[in-house]
């Protein structure tokens, strides 16, 4: 099973990132700050549009609270930052925004309904039209992201390949793994995480979206427990 949709997605992000890195040389500091602010607003609006799709706000709240507590207890952000910094040192990259660029791009590209539904569709044997559409969108947004955050956006293709491609392969071997209702709940939790990223881009430093990542796993567990109790 070759996840062609994900490979195409990776290719568009690489091309878009290279274009963005090239354009960054021609963008002055003042314009860069304005683009940065616009990206924050766009990310916030995107997160809100995803989050409000839920029909079970209690499930969302429980998942976010428990997931964040787990992330804070494990200091997930520090662990991921250390891993990104290690990669940065190994590759001798001097970009100070490398980690932020990698994490922001990965969450924007991979936490959403198009990612999950598209990857599952391809795993079920369907033509990956959803992932092809998403790829074009990601390619365009990667131009803006890379011109703002730098080379970290380019390296986000590695976790994307593992995460998105992994969903396709799992769906291929385990047909109908996740019901559509659960996908909707995961998408809504993803919206909350993306809202957190938007706030962070806009300068709100008291929130660590990375430490909220376990909520994506917690929502699955809570959903399954809830289904067994009903």
How many domains in all? 1
In DSSP terms, counting alpha (H) and pi (I) runs of 4 or more, how many helices? Answer: 11
How many β-strands, per DSSP? Answer: 0
Order of helices and strands: HHHHHHHHHHH
Strand content: under 5%
Please outline the major beta sheet. none
Task: Characterize the structure shown.
This protein is an all-alpha fold and 230 residues long. Helices cover 78% and strands 0% of the residues. The chain contains 11 helices and no strands.
Based on the model shown, name its key terms.
single chain, 230 residues, mainly alpha, 11 helices, 78% helix
What is this structure's SSE topology?
Blueprint: H1 4-24, H2 29-51, H3 57-74, H4 76-90, H5 98-110, H6 113-123, H7 129-149, H8 152-155, H9 157-173, H10 180-201, H11 215-229
Helix pairs in contact: 1-7, 1-9, 2-7, 2-10, 3-10, 3-11, 5-7, 6-7, 6-9, 10-11
Condensed summary:
This protein is an all-alpha fold and 230 residues long.
